[in-house]
Amino acid sequence: MSAFDPGVRPVIGMTTYLQQAQTGVWDVRASFLPAIYFEGVGLAGGTAVLLPPQPVDDIIADHLLGGLDALVITGGRDVDPATYGVGRHAATDEPVPDSQTRDAFEFALVRAALRRRMPVLGICRGAQVLNVALGGTLHQHLPDVVGHPRHQQGNAVFSTSSISTVPGTRIAALVGPDTDAQCYHHQAIDRLGDGLIVSAADADGVIEAVETDPARYPDHWVVAVQWHPEERLDDLRLFAGLVGAAAEYAAHKTQKVSP
């Protein structure tokens, strides 16, 4: 085969939780991901593969991504603030071994994906992971910054934020000049990571999307949003953008290995 087969759905790796979970009579440590995440990938034309957090080095992370066409860093617990050099705020999730394993696993996957020029989509925690992996920092508790808790109301109730995008960015091309977004986050990006640009913000000035700077990463499709696109599967624009980029990446891989 000399070119990518359009009938083959690109394979999207999605990171997962690692924590105690209950199912039936069992109460065990488990790796899992809410189905709505991989349903979004499937509806957009991709095939999802779940990636459980585990100890890896850069070589293993690179090998792991070898069978994938794109990567999604999903939502979850707060990133350990020690990874960006500060002490823990009282409202920040207390780091535990499983969450620290997940942090290190996702940082390694981000580094490997960037080396491979693999498409990446970060969602909520995923945007924060991308930023910290590239040397940025986080606001640990947004109410201290913006003066209200509306970004995370609690009790698993998502709030709707009005997001304005930056003209000329990938996010603007995908969702237009503005959009309503489902939000559930008490943390957000503070100092930008190296090679990232802001591509959307809300009315409070909170960074709601970042992406790689095309001047620094001209061949990369790397986008991360602070909101939860999987909560609105009637709007697949972000997932469709990822799957389209993954198909192009897969075609390029196939052409490289074809005789």
From TrEMBL:
Keyword annotations: Hydrolase
GO BP field: polyamine catabolic process
Which Gene Ontology molecular-function terms are recorded?
A: gamma-glutamyl-gamma-aminobutyrate hydrolase activity
Task: Give the Pfam families listed for this entry.
Answer: Peptidase_C26
Q: Which Gene Ontology cellular-component terms appear in the entry? A: cytosol
User: Which InterPro entries does this chain map to?
Assistant: Class_I_gatase-like, Peptidase_C26, PuuD-like
What stretches pass through the bilayer? none
This chain's protein is named: Gamma-glutamyl-gamma-aminobutyrate hydrolase
Where does this protein come from, organism-wise? Mycolicibacterium duvalii
